[in-house]
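Usage

Read records sequentially. Each one opens with the input sequence:
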Amino acid sequence: MSRERLRDMGSRGREAMVAPIRSRFRIAGKRKEPENQGGYPNPVRDADQMDSLEGYEGSGSGQRAACDPAILNVAISHGGLKVKQENVLERVYNLGRLRMAWRQVRKNAGAAGIDRMTVEEFERREDELLKLIHDKLETGTYRFKPARRKLIPKKGSSKKRKLGIPVVMDRIVSQSMNLVFEGIYSPGFTESNFGFRRGRSQHGAIKHVQRVVVDGHDWCASTDLKSFFDEIPHDLILKLIRGQIADEGLVTLVARALKAGVMVRR
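and closes with the structure output:
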């Protein structure tokens, strides 16, 4: 999957989160992962469907609503309970959350993907298409389309930056996934984490650094991982998701997104 699609999944969640979800806890022992629930087969094997498309550019050698979810206790570490959340996919395809995601996609606007459907065209069929997305996610038949590749000038360089433009429906699904992931993972982030987080900005990061300087720190290091989103192993992403989420339907959906790739004009 291209870095643009990964970034799209992680940076578009800026709408207010839905009301807190009630959760119930139960103690359980070691548990076998569910197989093929809700029409979702093996996440990596299933995602290979796009490889035969003409003009398809693969992902590289490193790739492979609110409801009342049960939360499964899977480990006891340092005196605390480590839990996994179940029924997460149901939150993604909840119609209320899909509408919230659609409002953000509409606000961001942007060009059409490979299907040439614009945001304005989607808006004219909003109810019909959101119901279609919901039904396909619920039955496990939703498939991400490759992003449309576009080259744009790179500031301060003669090189071109590769931009991936997903179709509108994929942007809505990705945004809904991001809203759900924010609620699960954000509480574990440090106070110094400002990248692609809802309600945080570069200005907030600068103020944070200023406070750190006042506390007595007198130097900092600026680092960057070259082509991070191009090189990160997809298996690692799925492993990290499984560390907190016990929902193979959701894992499969992420795997399909990672394998969607891009369409390039030859």
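Summary fields computed downstream for this record:
- Strands lie at 24-27, 56-57, 70-77, 80-85, 147-153, 160-165, 262-263.
- Residues 55 and 265 are 7 Å apart (CA to CA).
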